[in-house]
Amino acid sequence: MIDFNTQLYTSERAYVNEIANGKFVFFSPDNKGLPFVGELKVKQIYERYLNGQTLLNALLQDDLKNRNEALRLTKYLFDKGLLRTSPTPVRYSATEFPAPEKIKSLSTWFHINNACNLGCEYCFVNKDKSKMTREIMKQSLDRIYSTAIFRDLNSVTIKFAGGEPTLSINDMLWCYDYLTEKFSGKKIQLHFAILSNGTIQNEKLIEFLKRDNVGISISLDGFGEESHDIHRNFVKTKKGSWKIIMNNIERLIENGIKPYIMATISEESADTLPNLVEWIFKTGLRTRLSVVRQPNSTWENIQERKHEYKKLIDKMISAFEKAFTLLEHERFDLNLKYAMNICELHFEQPSYTATCGIATNHIVIQEDGKLASCPMTLKETNIEPTDDLLSSIRDTFKFNPEKRNEGKEKNCLDCNWFPVCTSGCPVNNSRVTGEAFTISPLHDFYAYVIPRYINFYGHKLLQKADKLNMQNKTIILN
Ligand code: SF4
Ligand code: SF4
Predict the structure, then answer these.
(1) pTM of the prediction?
(2) Would you tell me which CATH number, out of the four given (3.20.80.10, 3.90.550.10, 3.20.20.70, 3.40.190.10), belongs to the domain 106-395?
(3) Alpha carbon nearest to ligand 2 atom 7, residue
(4) How far is 357 from 246, CA to CA, in rounded Å?
(5) How far is the CA of 432 from the centre of ligand 2 (A)?
(6) Is the CB of 359 under 6 A from ligand 2?
(7) Ligand (nearest to CA of 343)
(8) What CATH architecture does domain 7-90 belong to?
């Protein structure tokens, strides 16, 4: 709450940029909420507080008839974090992972098998015939249930993964029935997601996907055979999987099922990114566009190969620039809030710990029932689970995000984008630098893509306003 005597300051972390004549995009990285567009008047009000100013003195600059509007805009800028009641601190402060009692949701990578029909060379799973037994499934689901009850959670998500989980459709169905029955009558939302390579389809799978709260995500490496099939070939025939996946996606859509596309862009597939996004949005799908974390798709000797990140990043910047430019065309009408996620970046909700739910509310249950922090660390920690998985989670990842505060040298805490990027993937960082919470090797890409996405967002907001004939509104939001 602010009153007329409140001293206000502009946030030095705010991003304000002119994206069209007299139209500015505004974004505050350390405040909840997405970018918005404002007129010159909004920027002028924002700038009144550059050196600190009481609300009263700022309003006295307006004549009587404009004072109410100035007050409304000042309050709006304050709510959006662009104005603050104290000068902007020199650095951000990182925080320790939240304690289990503060957490209200649990997301589980449920690693039901290790087998896969594709033989992608970069895959982090050691392919073998081992799979989760029914006994381990039951014990693990019981633990998920006891955690949800003990911690009074609001929601639980099970992500069936492997290997290729659709090779174990009967196991997924069994888990669904078992857990749904266990949770019946409880006020806890239950979601199921299948993380698939998209090559397998049958009636049983389609029927499963039509059930309540079940979704499917399909991984693609790029667009077209020349890109996707570089690595994604069938083990037995060595043939590419692209055509089959496209047919399967069409069939899913015919059945009213919209898969979520998890695209991982590498140096090899970067040139096809514009085609990929064009296809995704023309087809009415949603996506996460991720960037491979290791140059040349291999982790081998990564500490000696740091210099290779430059080429990877240059390729990514050029590919994403082409994709954004294409999508800025008015023929693409995107649901801005949901259509596209970029890597692990979070624009809507700032984070001061890690970019993902590692060590907090995301856990991997391996096929042997033991725990890992995330899919990239499968079989590395092998933590024994307890009946309170939210406590066990912390044991899977020993790094402390708060340690960043001790660093005297310039680090992510000195970066305006810290709450959006939070240093990127901590496992990637630890592999390359030995520390989880360091400046990411992909930093130059993040430093490009974050403001680029905000500007893109602003352009799409303006287009929407034009279509609705609302372009003269002082503030345009989604
Ligand atoms: S990795 Fe780079 S962009 Fe991300 S928070 Fe650190 S300094 Fe900022
Ligand atoms: S640590 Fe990295 S790979 Fe693992 S969940 Fe987080 S962002 Fe993803």
Answers:
(1) 0.95
(2) 3.20.20.70
(3) 425
(4) 31
(5) 14
(6) no
(7) 2
(8) Alpha-Beta Complex (3.90)
**Contact by Cβ (8 Å): 109, 365:** yes
User: pLDDT, tens digit, for every residue of 329-384?
Assistant: 999 999 999 999 999 999 999 999 999 999 999 999 999 999 999 999 999 999 99
Determine the Cα–Cα distance for residues 63 and 238; give it in Å rounded to an integer: 75
Q: Which atom of ligand 1 is nearest to the CA of 446?
A: 3
Amino acid (one-letter) located at 359: A
For ligand 2, whether the C-beta of 344 sits within 6 Å is yes
DSSP H or E stretch at residue 312: helix 308-327
The torsion angles phi and psi of 270, rounded to 5 degrees, stand at: -55, -40
Beta bridge mates, 190? 156
- Nearest atom (ligand 2) to Cα of 358: 6
> For residue 96, what is the DSSP state?
P
Q: What would the two tokens of residue 311 be?
A: 């080429």
Tell which atom from ligand 2 comes closest to the C-alpha of 427. Answer: 1
Q: Please, are residues 263 and 323 in contact by the beta-carbon 8 Å criterion?
A: no
